[in-house]
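Office hours follow-up: a student asked to see two folded examples consecutively, so here they are.
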Amino acid sequence: MVNERATTEKRRTASVTPSRELAASIVQAMQEKKGDQIVVMDMRQVSGLADYFVLCSAESDLQAKALIEHIRKTVKERFRELPWNVEGEDYLQWVLMDYVDVVAHILTPEKRSFYELERLWGDAPMERVAEDQERVELLTAMESSDETPH
């Protein structure tokens, strides 16, 4: 039991995958399942919660489930990482997939409008991602340099 707890705590504080690569993969997975209004927010300078938030809207429970499973599968296949925690999967109104350095948010349009995360974290640099956009400038701007620490 002690070893299991130590492994869980270590996993919560460190990810072997660079956060910008993880965020880019989550964006791509959202695009592949037609997530609506995808936004990437760079949280490094405004919050210690994560490096990036990646948000999208899901028009139905079926689409939300497809997004959750596709993100989980994509990240696991590419990086051998699972979310540290997933919240909201029972009701599918606002699902939060916590990958430690990157948090994916899948919201219904109503919840997204009500909580207005983009406005709430308005100081964070953000980029809206077009449906067919292949490259997120916010995630590639620092490609040649190291990740900025919290």
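And the second, which I mentioned at the end of office hours:
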Amino acid sequence: MPQSANQVATDTFVLERTYPRPVDRVWKLLANADAKRRWFFESDGTTIDAFEMDFRVGGKERAQYSFRKGTPVDGLPFVNESIFFDIVPDERIVMAQSMSINGRIISAALVTFEVAQSGGGTALKLIHQGVFLEGSGGPEMRKHGWKVLLDKLDSALAGAA
């Protein structure tokens, strides 16, 4: 359901994937700043202005970027800011995250990644508990975005040696 001008939407969704790579390879792409920047933020349609990640409990991640021409948000500055609340190596990451466009926060979320050995690969579970404000596009748009990102993670793993 589309949001009205002043309506707040909340939603929780869970996405699960199994990757044919060991847990340590999947974990590296979640925990290593250079690796995460490449699969999570870099693309032909994105310009990254800044990215930093301090991967520890209490550490922060911040990305400032914009989308290139051909999108409704062409050239507007996006900022994702996160704080890591819980990290269990090779098992779990819990982080709070906000997203803003042009200086205005459009969403806040608690995002949990769980990884576990599954046969010869890794099962990944993403739990997203979000609050979506005006201009966010709502939960369906965010869910779609995470599906795209998990596909990018799969591609990054396929290229990993």
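Two things to take away from it. The chain has one domain: 9-159. The CA atoms of residues 87 and 93 lie 5 Å apart.
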